[in-house]
Request: fold
Amino acid sequence: MAAAPRSRWGRPLSIRAHLLLLLTALLLPVLAFAALVIWRFAESERNRIETHASDVVREASAILDRGFVDIFATARVLAESEALAEGDLAAFHQRAAATARVVGGVVALRDRAGRYVLNSNVRWGDPLPRSITLAAADAEVARTGRPVVTDVFRGIVDPTLQFAVILPVRVGNGLGSAPYFLSLSMPLARIQRILDEFITLDPGATAAVVDRRGIFVARTRDPESFVGKTVRDVPLEMPHPGGRVIGLDRAGVPSMLAYQWSDVSGWRTGVVVPMALVTAPLRRALWFLGAIGAGAVALALLGAFAVGERITRSARALSAAAAALGRDEPVPALATPLRETNQVGVVLAAAARELHAREAARARAAAALHLTDQRFRVALLSAPVTAYTCDRELRYTWIANPHRDATPEAVLGRRDGEIATGARPEEVAALIALKREVLETGAGIRRDLTWTGRDGRVSHYDVTAEPLRDGGGPGAAVVGITVAALDITSHAAAVQALRLQDERQHLLLNELNHRVKNSLAAVQAIAAQTLGAAPDLETAKARLQARLLALSAAHDVLTRESWEGASLAELFDAALAPLRPAEPGRVLREGPPIWLPPRAVLALTLAFHELATNAAKYGALSVPAGRVTVEWALRPGRLLWLRWTESGGPHVAPPTRRGFGSRLIERSLAHDLRGRVAMGFRPNGVVCTIEAALPPERDAAAVAWQGPAAEGAGEGKLAAEPQEG
Reply:
């Protein structure tokens, strides 16, 4: 038996070996590319975690700095108070206590030796505790003349962990001109709330804030065990202004620390992320890559074995057929897995099978095409897209999901001008022009068009038109067009809504500017006339403060109602709240609900205040048996009628001359409400009757307020005499 010739490629290999080499050559680039993609993904995830930690630190530091700026602003308002400048420490203590209650802190004033002068937690006149040791912060303030944020300390009156903002101030009127130190102390819980409410961390990360001495101020995880304690695992000499370092945390776990110094407080904000969390994407990627590689190799071996077995079996059958042919024996029809091998033995049978296979394939293709067409129609019906084709005469030849005014039967074979039952002529012309441009240029076009239906609703469409060609290739003749119209009405409405919202925002800003100017003009007029009418400075101060508080109460009511107006009953209760007697039955009101515009709210607030002040000082509310009754009604033509009646008070005699309060009531109401005021001084009590025309109800919220004394404030229209407040 002759030996097989030796291949020029060396030792011949089996079919399975060749298949395995081929699959290996295909798999190696794929696995290498997958490894690169997975590695890049893991690196991007690591960078994302590190960047997110740095972003969180910067965001938290910025939020804390804004909070410190707010505290600085509050402290500066206190430092610039008139009582402190005049050395009236009792009045300043009252204001400091009110401010401390509002902001939830403690206001204190210390001299240069660190001794307390006053403390908002200690009543005025009571013995003061020993001073908290803030000598270093006081010395820094005295040296630089700038505000300072202290480190964490524990209070004396309130033994909680706190921090303070310290400002240099000067106290006048006999207390010396040497600088004093005004401090506003806040609990650490304020910083903890900022971390809990505004900071979002990756799972496993921890954010914290420490002061300049390295004491925890706040911490997102287990704050009760850390706040107030010294940081042991992070060096205090970290570079300014911020960055990232890698080391061991308190538990000895390798971690990454992203930190940021605060230029306002000198504190540091940090986020600690375990390195296991940072490297987790890379570990998962390596495991995933290993699993993919092992699975691919296993599949390659199985595939090479299975395919090689089929090819080997076919080769053996072909060898047997060749041997039979050599022995002049009939060649049987082969039924191997390889079609080429079978065609060698049975050409005619293979041809018959080919014809049968082609017919079956054609039927399957037709069925698949029909199914695809059905799916396409269903997809169009469930989407806001109208698709159709037109011939060169612009007659509709096919349509899916037509406009709500039409049906496919009513559209096919017709032109746009024949089916546009509700569309405007310019809309029809624009659509026809788009189609003709596609037919003439042979290029696709995309435009935004509108179409008005029979119901008057205007729909916006993103229209794409492409040429329909006779045969393949760009050089084929254009026989029509294909159009797809996407309904973007909701998007257009959203764009219009955003535009209207922007215009409304500009309008509101202009309105706010107008109201602030008018408010300042009103305050200026009231202040000038009050100071001119008061017999002394203390009386002027008390009267001015009361009138400004009344004006502020009106502003509070209007602010709650977005400056669209206010209820007369709510206005009355707000104006009389500071002067209302302890017995509710001494002040009675009765009347239907009436909505007042902003202008009337401010004018009536000042009128109620002047009437109530006069009643409390000289009238019915100055004695226990006195009563005040207020009645109102809305008469035809939206005419407001209101009567203030006092009874049971001291004997009333008509005044010899009218003071500022009476003229304020009469002139402000006459000016702002175009109304009339009648003041009656009966022996048993004052009676004030007000009649004013209100604007129509639909315009009540739109009436612009110009202030009770905005016009003529500089002309002395409300000049006051000293005998009346």
